[in-house]
Amino acid sequence: MKLLTLLFLCHLVGDFCLTSPWMLRAKSTGWPPLPILTHALVHAVLMGGALMICSVPVGQAFLLAGVEMGSHFLIDTLKGLANSRFPSLGEYKSQISWMVFGLDQFCHTLVILFIYKYA
């Protein structure tokens, strides 16, 4: 349970504390990829550290951190591209934007649960 709590804490810190304006701009449109990739790398480092703190073997921790990085990049890029194609998705006053935000967080949660299961 300690590991699962740490993984969710890493996600919260990575998404809501360590995301710079540079990353947010790119995440909002899905382009350019470098800031989104950097954001995904932050998540991978946090998750990899949490995995190693909880005694997951180093090779396995690196592999799972790679899963986190790749999936986080893909989820955030797709959400940004959808926001670009359908601007109402990014308007935080609309109900649909909150549904998309919820779907985004649900997808990240599924990845966290996958990582936990295979750690």
Structure write-up:
The longest helix is centred in the middle third of the chain and has 28 residues, at 58-85. It contains 5 helices and no strands. The chain is mainly alpha-helical and 119 residues long. Helix content is 82%, strand content 0%.
Count of discrete alpha- or pi-helical segments spanning 4 or more residues: 5
Radius of gyration: 14 Å
- Taken as a percent bin, the fraction of beta residues is under 5%
Uncertain residue segments? none
User: Secondary-structure element order, as H and E?
Assistant: HHHHH
What is the residue-averaged pLDDT?
A: 96
C-alpha termini separation: 12 Å
Which secondary structure elements does this structure contain, and how are they paired or packed?
Layout: H1 2-16, H2 21-29, H3 33-53, H4 58-85, H5 95-118
Properties at a glance:
119 residues; mainly alpha
Summarize the structure.
The chain is 82% helix and 0% strand. With 119 residues, the chain is mainly alpha-helical.
